[in-house]
Amino acid sequence: MGLCFWLISCSSKSLKDQRAQHEIEYILEPGAQVAVSDGVATFTGTFPDEASMQAAQTLAKKTKGVKSVINKATIEQKMQVTTDSVSMAH
Fold it and tell me: N or C end: fewer C-beta atoms under 10 angstroms in the chain?
């Protein structure tokens, strides 16, 4: 009997993690990932900017079943292209 209860509680915990993960993934930008395990949401990959990273973390903290958030993701490095003005004299 105790084994049955343990199996049921473990599977429902995993289901909670799966539901939380799907809810968070819905708003993630391409390149960013989240994994939820034992109520801990862990972000990896890259976000396009700080604002989208903060939005994802805020949502994760408010998601039912998430106890804490770990962020191992980075911000995408955008290349700055500079152009020199060249005057064309004829």
Answer: C
